[in-house]
Design a protein that fits this description.
With 182 residues, this protein is mainly α. The chain is built from six helices and no strands.
Length: 182
């Protein structure tokens, strides 16, 4: 009986050690995320977006840059879908607004493509191209905000702002990753 009790105690200790080791990548990943995000202008949004993606654990700096770019690209795609829904909103049925929404849809589709190109650039460490394409994506979305003028839906204005911030986060993290010894 003592032998079985000893085995159970040893097994419990082994499992506790393995469980502790399993949480280590998440803890280390969170530390890196906090460190990287503290260098951005939008720390809270940065932490929220990076921690929402399981690929952030355990990612290195380049991996976190990739997650940030993918998150911004996904955000652009989501906003494109929201704009398509806005076409059916009767409060936005003025021809000028509809035309501006159509232009915004084009701008977001272009921004999404620019971010996809940025992701490809990151994989080959073409940081100059990455920066250029992310900046073009932000310019596209700023153009969308300008085209709608005072007629722009508040939801779209907020989403444009968040998109710009996500791009700024991705740029900052990419610049940090660029300095990483590879």
């Amino acid at each position: 009986m003592k032998f079985i009790s000893a085995i159970v105690v040893i097994l419990c200790l082994c499992m506790a050690t393995k469980r502790h080791d399993a949480t280590r990548p998440v803890e280390e990943g969170m530390t890196l995320i906090e460190e990287m995000c503290s260098q951005t202008k939008h720390k809270e949004l940065c932490v929220d977006s990076l921690t929402s993606d399981p690929n952030s654990y355990p990612a290195d700096k380049t991996g976190l840059a990739l997650v940030a770019l993918r998150f911004a690209s996904s955000n652009a795609s989501d906003i494109s879908e929201s704009i398509k829904v806005m076409f059916n909103d009767s409060t936005l049925s003025k021809p000028m607004v509809q035309e501006a929404l159509l232009d915004c849809l084009d701008e977001y589709l272009d921004a999404s493509q620019q971010l996809d190109d940025s992701i490809a650039a990151l994989t080959v460490k073409a940081y100059g191209d990455l920066e250029k394409w992310v900046n073009i994506a932000m310019t596209d979305v700023r153009t969308c905000g300008t085209e709608l003028g005072s007629e722009r839906p508040p939801l779209l204005t907020e989403r444009n702002d968040v998109f710009i911030k996500l791009c700024e986060i991705a740029l900052t993290i990419s610049k940090i990753a660029q300095g990483e010894k590879n």
